[in-house]
Amino acid sequence: MNQPKELDTLTYSALKAFRNCRRMYDLRYNRSLVPLEEDDSLALGAMFHACLERWYKRAADAPTGQIVAEILDFIDGSYPDRFTDDRQRKNWHLARAMFLAYTEKYPSENFNVIAVEREFHATIVNPDTDCASRTFVMRGKADAVVEKDGQYFILEHKTASSIDGGYIERLPMDFQVVLYSDYVSRAMNIKVAGVLYNVVAKAQIKQGKGETEEEFQERRAALLAKSKTGKTTASRKMAESDEDFQGRLAAKYREDGMFHRELLYFYADQFSTLHSEVWELCQQLLLARRTGRWYQNPDFCFHFNRPCAYFPICRSGDNPNVIENLFRVAPRHPELGETAPADAPVF
User: Are residues 14 and 148 in the same domain?
Assistant: First the structure.
């Protein structure tokens, strides 16, 4: 008896990569490559998501102070080298400040949490024939599902460098939440009316590093050279303590514009358009697989005013030394708890 064919997993992240650049999709999802050095912004966003997951999963009768302390311990444990590693120290400070400020900003909510990190696993259907894909299945995980005024909404956490008018204006065009809402509706047998965007800014202030004795003496000498009296009251600038910097961060997060929530409703045509777009992307993906043509999109190489993570590979012409030294094999869909292939070579 023939065993049913195991379908390939598609996620929003995979579809997004394919839409943006097929070459990127090939490197990330066919070859399972990721940079050795994780992007700071993505790492901080993932940490803050993990904190909010724990926050919203807390028991209703759990003491708030105890939960906050446990999550702060989780943050501390996630940055074990923060005393010697500047990148860990920076993200540790921001993660703690963002979470503490969040609990101060939203000590209570005007919605009920129905599910947290709700995973879905659903068929992809041809909208013209109602036939399910024999190759792909859609999977994903919504940050949360909430109930507000008798309606259901996806709660979508986002971290941003700044929350300005342009950022808010782009939210209705978010393909991800429409996709998630459609599949969560099916998985939970509910009607998702819209999305509640929960946006938190990443403070741009930095911890004062102070100056070395050598730097101080150099600055002091320059001041003395300019002094008419041959004297100066300059003293060595000392590094800002963690406690003082946390205080400055807390003050920053009390300013306007560091938090934003936006409630958006879906309109009827959005889901039918989504079904057609997802199906068409699946067909294009199948064609790329059959032909082995994973075209590069040069317009996306510097889309965020910085090189794409895979730019070194493309620029080097797939040089194996570049791949071996700058990349590693990783799970294709880590957000779903997948593990990396055992003993998989990077090239």
Answer: yes
